[in-house]
Amino acid sequence: GGVPPVTDLVLGATAGCLACVLTNPLEVVKTRLQLQGELQPPGTYPRPYRGVLRAVGAVCRADGLRGLQKGLAAGLLYQGLMNGVRFYCYSHAEDAGWTRYPGGTVAAGAVAGAVGAIVGSPAYLVKTHLQAQTLAAVAVGHQHNHEVSG
């Protein structure tokens, strides 16, 4: 008696995408904080990102308010693929009866999670590149300059 796998796919993808819209600004800030000074010896580089609130300000100064949503399209693709596939695979496992066996729930969840992660991984990489992309003055290393149309 659960919902059909296609419904799980749509609901899982939608929930992941809604969460992405709300958390993407924090992802941008986290990515910038993590990359800051990554390619230089400690103490030899400027630190435009100092703490979460200052990093939000630095992103807005360098990229404008829209900079807090950098990589959103790739993030939505990633979340939609990863979560949709996870929910879809798990729903299929339930329908096939895998979850009725001892350890079946864990195995079905692990397989569904792994398949979702594999499918979504390329979009996650592009999302991270886009989130790191900024002005040369505060950029870290090579800027991949991905273009997102729309």
TrEMBL record:
It is a multi-pass membrane protein. InterPro entries: MCP_dom_sf, MCP_transmembrane, Mito_Carrier_Antiporter. Gene3D superfamilies: Mitochondrial carrier domain. It comes from the Eukaryota. It is found in: Mitochondrion inner membrane. Pfam families: Mito_carr. Its main location: mitochondrion. Solcar repeats lie at residues 3-96. This is Solute carrier family 25 member 34.
